[in-house]
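re: the backbone from monday

yeah here it is again, tokenized this time
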């Protein structure tokens, strides 16, 4: 708490000295306070003191308003424009004021968070360096004035220890201990946002366009488990966003590029199709986007292929400007929920629509116009000619957006490769996998013999150096059983994929441990300090290469929510496009660990550990099992072997089959699902999800 003593009676030098000393003490208490609310209370009490100098009163009035704004402003990043322009924020307080040192903490925060948000700063090393050097200078001055402030120290690389602990018990496997901690701490962060930032209208303070992205890192607990509180919050947000006036036509009416116009619909509808798939409202919204795509946004180009006519469009307008007339690898974001609907239903009209669109990109990958290497997917296809790239001088830089780095090769290539793989799966036609195979071979060629000099932009080697294919190649491997890219997987695979293919538990445990360690520290960096809601988990990146400090801190890790999602659901890649999540555990994401060890159309295997002290009643919902009769078994697993606890048969009638069971406390269990016909027989490994 902050206490301000009453003024003494009598005007003399001793009193003045005492008053100044007491004022300095209050300011020192305010500066060393970790919570902005405490700092604000200190200064408000100081402002009520009689006999303050007029200039100090004015400074207090200004600074109290600014701290209140930091705490309560509707828009969390209200300072962004000024920070972008000046790498600073003017509080209107002279550097001679006793309050001036208090401004350093806020100015450092503002510049830091703007830097982490802005792609045109974060992605350009020289600009990033200039902004972060300025921010570090502010924090160093704040630390010098108020050395006990933990928030300041956190930005300077001194982590804040956790307030909560998640103790284990003797004999619990390491993977379960670290995964459980990661899930708990991720849920803690999500629930903090729900409890402290969610507003009456459903927003979180970053604006609809940024708030909607939060579900992407919620995924491990949002669709891996069943938390009523988190599910309710997502439903509330999605409904609120889609009820906004600019969404009345089923897609935004606010003009921008597809990377941004698609967010309000894709990031509101897609999570609800996972959480509430039987609600026809969400399916109708997904089909509305298909209608707009087919009837308004696309056309046949001069080469006869179906493509989007522009990078800029809304529900009722298409920007026909020649420089913006591009289909791009970002465009799958527009139809993200529709792609998920197609994956689940096999809708024939959508098969025709999406296959026609992907024909365009298969053709573009095979061409070599404008010097593009054969087999490389471009980031853009120009309308109406259908040529590679945009109006920029180089095929790899379409210049179709003022922030050109968004569409600069390879841009959002993962969105397009996953859409091609989905089309290959849905149609059974090999041609849609060919661009994936070609870029994988180019990447493998580069990794096998990287050039001694930096390759020239636009060349095959240059393209190979920039590709990231881990997720789509992992899904390709699971879908086809084809081992042709196992060498690439070995070089770039995720720890979970390595575990699934080779039983490499050590690498998985290490990755889960680092994820737990990342979430264990600096809780304010993921919660109260965050000013841009599309950057909630970026804080640890400050301490990497070219970060806020002169040297990176190897012990500060970045959370890996994709790893948590994969281990919990069995999906070898990410959840955004063509998700292959095999299971959802219908129980809260607390006191539990779940590691999917096997998944496919005919079987599922997992290890489960309940950390509580009483039996746990729960269910599992299976998403990949094809219709048929199955045996479900739960066994205890220990050093002596496995002992059956529960066995039952069930019928899978569709792609969402639910089975209820219970777990004993603090005992490692093995879950096994396989077809009835396989009981007692030697079963061949199925080709996962093959058609």
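seq for it, each position gets an aa:
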């Amino acid at each position: 708490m902050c206490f301000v003593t009453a003024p003494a009676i009598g005007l003399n030098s001793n009193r003045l000295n005492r008053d100044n000393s007491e004022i300095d003490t209050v300011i020192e208490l305010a500066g060393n306070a970790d919570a902005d609310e405490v700092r604000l209370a200190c200064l408000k009490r100081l402002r009520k003191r009689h006999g303050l100098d007029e200039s100090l009163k004015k400074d207090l009035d200004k600074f109290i308003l600014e701290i209140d704004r930091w705490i309560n402003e509707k828009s969390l990043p209200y300072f962004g424009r000024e920070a972008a322009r000046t790498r600073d924020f003017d509080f209107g307080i002279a550097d001679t004021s006793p309050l001036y040192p208090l401004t350093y903490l806020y100015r450092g925060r503002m510049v830091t968070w703007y830097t982490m948000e802005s792609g045109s700063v974060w992605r350009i090393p020289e600009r990033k360096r200039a902004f972060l050097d300025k921010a570090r200078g502010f924090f160093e001055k704040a630390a010098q004035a108020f050395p006990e402030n933990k928030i300041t120290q956190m930005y300077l690389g001194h982590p804040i220890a956790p307030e909560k602990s998640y103790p284990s018990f003797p004999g619990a496997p390491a993977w379960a201990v670290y995964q459980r901690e990661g899930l708990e701490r991720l849920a803690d962060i999500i629930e903090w946002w729900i409890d402290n930032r969610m507003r009456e209208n459903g927003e979180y303070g970053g604006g609809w366009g940024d708030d909607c992205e939060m579900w992407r890192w919620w995924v491990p607990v949002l669709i891996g488990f069943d938390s009523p509180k988190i599910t309710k919050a997502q439903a509330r947000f999605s409904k609120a966003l889609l009820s906004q006036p600019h969404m009345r036509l089923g897609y935004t009416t606010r003009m921008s590029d597809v990377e941004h116009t698609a967010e309000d619909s894709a990031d509101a509808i897609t999570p609800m199709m996972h959480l509430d798939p039987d609600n026809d409202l969400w399916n109708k919204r997904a089909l509305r986007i298909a209608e707009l795509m087919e009837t308004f946004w696309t056309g046949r180009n001069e080469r006869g292929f179906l493509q989007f006519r522009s990078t800029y469009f809304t529900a009722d307008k298409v920007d026909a400007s020649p420089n913006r007339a591009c289909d791009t690898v970002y465009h799958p974001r527009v139809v993200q929920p529709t792609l998920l609907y197609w994956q689940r239903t096999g809708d024939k009209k959508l098969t025709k629509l999406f296959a026609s669109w992907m024909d365009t990109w298969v053709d573009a990958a095979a061409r070599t116009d404008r010097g593009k290497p054969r087999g490389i997917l471009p980031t853009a296809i120009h309308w109406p000619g259908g040529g590679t790239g945009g109006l920029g001088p180089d095929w790899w830089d379409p210049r179709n957006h003022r922030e050109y780095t968004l569409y600069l090769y390879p841009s959002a290539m993962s969105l397009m490769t996953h859409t091609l793989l989905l089309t290959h799966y849905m149609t059974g036609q090999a041609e849609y996998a060919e661009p994936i195979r070609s870029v994988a071979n180019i990447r493998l060629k580069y990794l096998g013999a990287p050039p001694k000099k930096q390759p020239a932009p636009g060349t095959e080697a240059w393209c190979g150096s920039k590709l990231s294919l881990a997720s789509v190649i992992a899904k390709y491997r699971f879908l086809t059983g084809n081992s042709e890219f196992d060498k690439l997987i070995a070089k770039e695979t995720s720890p979970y994929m390595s575990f699934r293919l080779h039983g490499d538990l050590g690498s998985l445990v290490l990755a889960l441990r680092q994820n737990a360690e990342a979430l264990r520290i600096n809780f304010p960096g993921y919660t109260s300090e965050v000013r841009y809601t599309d950057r909630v988990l970026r804080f640890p990146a400050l301490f990497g290469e070219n970060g806020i400090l002169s040297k990176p801190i190897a012990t500060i890790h970045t959370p890996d929510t994709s790893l948590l999602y994969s281990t919990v659901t069995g999906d070898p890649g990410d959840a955004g496009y063509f998700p292959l999540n095999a299971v959802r555990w219908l129980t809260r994401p607390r006191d539990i660990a779940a590691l999917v060890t096997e998944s496919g159309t005919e079987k599922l295997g997992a290890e489960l550990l309940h950390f509580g002290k009483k039996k746990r009643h729960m269910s599992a919902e299976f998403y990949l099992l094809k219709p048929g009769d199955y045996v479900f078994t739960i066994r205890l697993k220990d050093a002596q072997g496995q002992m059956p606890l529960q066995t039952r048969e069930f019928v899978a009638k569709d792609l969402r089959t639910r089975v209820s069971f219970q777990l004993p406390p603090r005992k490692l269990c093995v879950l096994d699902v396989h077809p009835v016909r396989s009981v007692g027989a030697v079963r061949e490994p199925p080709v996962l999800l093959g058609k």
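Residues 13-155 form one domain. The longest strand covers residues 641-652.
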